[in-house]
Amino acid sequence: MAPRNPTGFDMAEFKAAASPKSAWAKRDPWARNEIWRYTGPFTRWNRFKGLFPGFGVASVAFAGYCAYEHFFLKDDHHHGEGHH
């Protein structure tokens, strides 16, 4: 038989109580009040999507400007050809 912990703390019982599937969690009176934080518009993905607002639009606009500058704006100064 394993020696009993003198403090009376039982790790197996603690793990069972801390599990989200435990009987205690099912009897939690606040559980239904807390569940809204993790469903619908408050899911982890929906919270992450709003982290960088406008980043997608700005990326497309910057890529478009870079393409425009490369193909349509030419440098007519000809630096480095010498001036006679």
UniProtKB/TrEMBL annotation:
<dbReference type="InterPro" id="IPR012576">
    <property type="entry name" value="NDUFB3"/>
</dbReference>
<protein>
    <submittedName>
        <fullName>NADH-ubiquinone oxidoreductase B12 subunit</fullName>
    </submittedName>
</protein>
<comment type="similarity">
    <text>Belongs to the complex I NDUFB3 subunit family.</text>
</comment>
<dbReference type="GO" id="GO:0022900">
    <property type="term" value="P:electron transport chain"/>
</dbReference>
<keyword id="KW-0679">Respiratory chain</keyword>
<keyword id="KW-0812">Transmembrane</keyword>
<keyword id="KW-0496">Mitochondrion</keyword>
<feature type="transmembrane region" description="Helical">
    <location>
        <begin position="50"/>
        <end position="68"/>
    </location>
</feature>
<keyword id="KW-0830">Ubiquinone</keyword>
<keyword id="KW-0813">Transport</keyword>
<dbReference type="GO" id="GO:0032981">
    <property type="term" value="P:mitochondrial respiratory chain complex I assembly"/>
</dbReference>
<keyword id="KW-0249">Electron transport</keyword>
<dbReference type="Pfam" id="PF08122">
    <property type="entry name" value="NDUF_B12"/>
</dbReference>
<keyword id="KW-1133">Transmembrane helix</keyword>
<keyword id="KW-0472">Membrane</keyword>
<keyword id="KW-0999">Mitochondrion inner membrane</keyword>
<dbReference type="GO" id="GO:0005743">
    <property type="term" value="C:mitochondrial inner membrane"/>
</dbReference>
<comment type="function">
    <text>Accessory subunit of the mitochondrial membrane respiratory chain NADH dehydrogenase (Complex I), that is believed not to be involved in catalysis. Complex I functions in the transfer of electrons from NADH to the respiratory chain. The immediate electron acceptor for the enzyme is believed to be ubiquinone.</text>
</comment>
